[in-house]
What does this fold into?
Amino acid sequence: MIHFEHVSKNFGRTAAVSDVTFEIGSGDFVFFVGPSGAGKTTILRLITRDLLPSKGKVVVDGWDIGTLPTNKVHILRRSVGMVFQDFKLLADRTVFENVSIGLEILGKSRAQIEKRVDEVLDLVKLGEKKNLFPAQISAGEMQRTGIARAIVAGPKILMADEPTGNLDPETAKNIMQVLFEINALGTTVLMATHNEGIVNEGKKRTIELIAGEIVSDKKKGSYPHGRS
Amino acid sequence: MGALDTARTHIWRSPYQALAAVITMFVTFLLAGVFFLTTVASVAILDYFESKPQITVFFADKATQDEINTLKVRLEQTQKIASITYVSKEEALAIYREQNKNDPLLLEMVTADILPASLEVSATDPKLLSELEPLIKAAGGVEEVVYQKDVVDALLSWTNAIRIVGIVLVTLLTINSFLIVMTVIGMKIALRREEVEILTLVGATPWYIKFPFLLEGGWYGAIGALLSWIVIIPIVIWLQPFLLSFLGGIPIIYGVFGSLTSTAFLIFSSLFLIGLLLTGFLLGSVASLVAVGRFLQ
It folds into this structure.
C-alpha cells in the first residue's frame, strides 16, 4: 500500500528525512513517533504529495509520488484522508457541511451526500450535532468532525497528524477508539504522535524517528522515549 | 454547495469589494460601449459616402439644358467615366422628400425651384478625377462641384481621431478593470486560504477550486456591462431625434433608429446587450483565472 525506498527530503541544507525505508500493508495501523522535528509530518506530507522526495522512491496505492503528474494529484488525495491537530474545520459551515465537502468534490447527489454523511456522523457519534457550527462544539467533537470528513469518501488510507495534540486525555482516548474502529473496517491508518500513553496502549506497529532517521520499527511497539 | 451558490456567497460576504469591482467594470463598459457605437456609426457614415458618386456637379438656376447635356456628353467622350446620372430639380425634390418624409415642416418649406439640378459622376478610376476637374470647371452653368473624396477624407480624419482616443481610453480602463478584479479576487482567495487548502487536501480538482472564483469575476464583469447598457440605451433613445436630423439620410441609420419600437432597434439593442454581457463576463473571469492561478501555484 505504502512503500518508502531510501527516501530523503531536504529543505535547503537541512535534512527533514534521511534515507528512510519502510513498507506498510493494506489494513495496517502504524504509529510514527518521535520528538518535534523528527520527520513524522514530512513523511505524511510525502505520502499526500504535498512534498516531493529529494532522493529515493515513494509509492502510495500504486502511484509513484516522484513521477505523479500535477493533474493527477487530486486522484491520489481522494484515496488518502487527512486528520489534523488543529482540526482545519471551516468556521462558517456546520458539522454536516464540513463533512460533506469530501463528497461534494466528487459530484455526488444531494441524497447520496445526506445518506453517507449521516452514516459517518453516526460512526463518530456526532449525529445529533450535525447542524451545529464548529464554534458550538467541543474540541473532541471538532476532531471527530475532522475524522468524519477524512473518511466520508471511503479512502484506503487515513492519516492523522497529532490528532490528539489539542485534546485532554479522556477525549484523546475517545478519538483513538474511533481511529481503531475505522482501522477495523479495513482502512489503513497512519498516525503521527509523540504521545507515549496512546502508543503504549495501542500496541500497534510503531516506527520511531529521530532527526529524520528511523531508529526503530516494531510490530507491537511502544514509545519509551516519548513524552505524554 | 454548487459553484454558482459558492460564487454568490462570496459576493454577498464582501459587498464593498464586489461593489468596487462592479463600478470599475461599469465605467469601462460605459466608455467602451459609447466608443463602440460611435465607431459603428462612423463606419456606416463612411460606407454611405463612399457609395455615393465621386463628384456631384451642381448647376446654377440659369444653366440651360443644353449646357448640362453638353457637359454630360463631353464627360462621356473622355471614356474615363464609370457612370453619370442627371438629377433634375424635380428629381432632387423627390429625393429630398424621401429623406425628410418624417418632418413635414421641412417638406413645406422646400420647392423644386430652390433645389439645383446636378450631374452625379463616377470615374472608372478615382485617380482620373483630377483630369476631369478642368473640363467640369470650364463648362457653362456650373455653380458648385462637390468632391465626395473631400467629405470622406474629412470624415476619415475625424473618425480616426475618435477611434484612437477611444482605443487608448478603453485599453487603459480595461487594464484597470482587469487589475481591480484580480486584486479583489486575490483578496478573497487570501481570506479563504484555509478553505482552498482543505479542498486541495481532500482531493478537489484545481478546476473545482477555481470555478467559483471564475464565476465571481465573471459576475462582476457581466453586472458592470449590464449597468452600462442600462445607461447607454436611454442616452441613445434621447439622442434619436438629433441622430435622425443629421444622419437620417443614411439608410442603415434610419433603418435602426427610425423607430424605437421597430424590430431593427430591438435586435440592435439586444445584440448590443449580449455583446456587452459576454465581453464583461469574459474579462472578469479571465482576470479571476489569472488571480486564482497565481495563488494555486
